[in-house]
Each structure stands twice: as C-alpha cells, then as structure tokens.
Amino acid sequence: MRKINNLDISLIRTFVTIVNNKGYAQASQILNLTESAVSHQMKRLEEQIGALLFQRKGRIKELTPIGEVFLGYASQILALNDELYNRVADLSQVNEIVHFGLPEYFADHILHKLLSEFSKIFPNIDFRTRVKGNYSLWKDIENESLDFAIVIGNNNARYSNTLSMEQLVWVGDKVNVDHDTPLPLISFEAPCPFRNAMIEVLNKNNIIWNITYTARNLSDMRAALKANLGVSALPKMVADIPLLINTKHDLPNLPELEVRLLFPQQTTTKTIHKLSDIIFYLW
C-alpha cells in the first residue's frame, strides 16, 4: 500500500504565488519573504512530492510537466482551504445582539428599509426589534432593555439626537366639523404625544371636544377614522392622504413634534454608532 504523505499548505501557497506572479522575486514581495526563503520552501515542497516542479530555461524557470499537473491540484487545494477557513470563521463568530425600538406609526415608513440595510452591512448581528407605544419605548430605554430607539418628544433626554421635526396634521374621513357641538376625537391611549398636542391646541382655541374612540394601535385608529367616528392627529409622513382633513374646516394648526434617536447611556458600541448613522441616512 502506498504511503500517504501530508503536504504543507504554506508551501503549496508559495508555489501558486510564484506561478501566478511569474517569478520568485515578485512572490517574495507578496509573501513578505526573502528570495532565498522562497527558494528554500520550493526545495522542501519538491522533496515532499519527490519530483521537480520547476526547470530552468536560460534565466527563466518554467514549470515541469509534473509542475503543470501539480498547479491544477494546488489551486483547488488552496481554494478549498480558504473557503473552509472563511466558512468556519463566519460560523464561529459570536453574534452580537442588538435591541432596537420604534413607535408603530413609523414602522411602515422606515422599518423595512432599516432591516434591509442592517442585514447587508451586519449579516452576523441578531437584530431584535420592538414596535410599541412611544411611552413604553421611553421606559425601555430608562430600564436599558433597548440599545437605542426612535421616540417622539424630548423629555429632557440626555443621550439623544434629533432625527427630524414632524408636522402633525388633522385626519378624518367625511367628518362633519360643527363648531356648535363638541368635536369628536379619536385618540391613542394616554400618555400619547399626539393626544396631548391635539387637546392642547383645541383648548387654546376654545374648541369643545369629546373623545369618542380610544384606539389601541395604528390599525385600530385607521379603522375608527374610516368609520367616521371622529378626527385625530397623526404625523404627516405617516397619515393616509385620503384621510387628510381639508383646511376649509378651519381647525387650528397642529404643532411639529421632535423625533429623536434615544440611547440609554452616553457611550455606544461601534455597531450601534454605525446603525445610528444608517437611520439618519434613510430617515
């Protein structure tokens, strides 16, 4: 039975580098070795296989017939070696877990874009998203159960950056706005920045109002609006255009609300910093 010998992968890499770069001098620069070291490695490889790989023709060293055959296998061995190494490195890399939160009314607008970009740039990150109410997100940041979150309002936040100022608009579907009777309002459950802004504006303008429906989420809100249960306030960027109330109803202008990127502490990881940059870019 023929004895099986194990070839040195580093010697095979040197051999392929010599052939691909047409000489010992160029290979020595790429491998950061002296030419004598490269020459010594080739002698060792030839001893391992028991055959010459190069033959001299004048000042040029060319592959022998065995060297030509060896080159084909050597290239495949290196390719498989590198593929295996990279594959194992990817699998063994510890996935970083990132917890991110945002209000549901912004989820349709931005979440799919964020997830797409995040997965391209950080394929090994376990990205966990919480879509919930604004007040709950603030609480999660305070409890440090989120790494960062998109929130509405300032609330004297120490570690945050302004994303944008979003205009609130009145929304409703075929609602008869009669200033002689209380204005029917559809609102999210308190505490809610939209609810607060809406009520504050109406009170300042001495407009009588009455909450006729309290929505649990955005889908619930849209259903109530389409059922003509009242009017409400939403950021213009997420409001359904058919539901926008015409200015002829003479309702007072609603304010802009600050949208911020909020962090539980001042210092963040490089990953969180990069993800934050992506949010600012896509917003």
Mind explaining what this structure looks like?
The protein is an alpha/beta fold and 283 residues long. The protein folds into three domains: 9-92, Winged helix-like DNA-binding domain superfamily/Winged helix DNA-binding domain (Arc Repressor Mutant, subunit A, Orthogonal Bundle), CATH 1.10.10.10; 97-159 and 259-282, Periplasmic binding protein-like II (D-Maltodextrin-Binding Protein, domain 2, 3-Layer(aba) Sandwich), CATH 3.40.190; 166-258, Periplasmic binding protein-like II (D-Maltodextrin-Binding Protein, domain 2). It contains nine helices and ten strands. Strands 4-3-5-10-6-9 form a six-stranded mixed β-sheet, with helices on both faces. The chain has a two-stranded antiparallel ribbon with strand order 1-2. α1 crosses α2 (24-31), α1 crosses α3 (35-49) and α2 (24-31) crosses α3 (35-49). It starts with 8 loop residues before the first helix and ends with a helix. The model has no long low-confidence stretch (mean pLDDT 87).
Average pLDDT, all residues? 87
Write out the CATH superfamily name of the largest domain: Periplasmic binding protein-like II
DSSP strand count? 10
Radius of gyration, whole Å: 33 Å
Q: CATH architecture of the largest domain, please? A: 3-Layer(aba) Sandwich
Helical content class:
40-55%
Tell me the count of domains. 3
Strand order of the largest sheet: 4-3-5-10-6-9
Main beta-sheet strand count, sense and barrel state = 6 strands, mixed
CATH topology of the largest domain: D-Maltodextrin-Binding Protein, domain 2
Structural class: alpha/beta
Low-confidence stretches: none
Q: Beta-sheet strand percentage?
A: 15-25%
* 3D shape: rod-shaped
- How do the helices and strands follow one another from N- to C-terminus? HHHEEHEHEHEEEHEHEEH
The span between the termini is 69 Å
Q: What's the number of helices? A: 9
Per CATH, the class of the largest domain reads: Alpha Beta
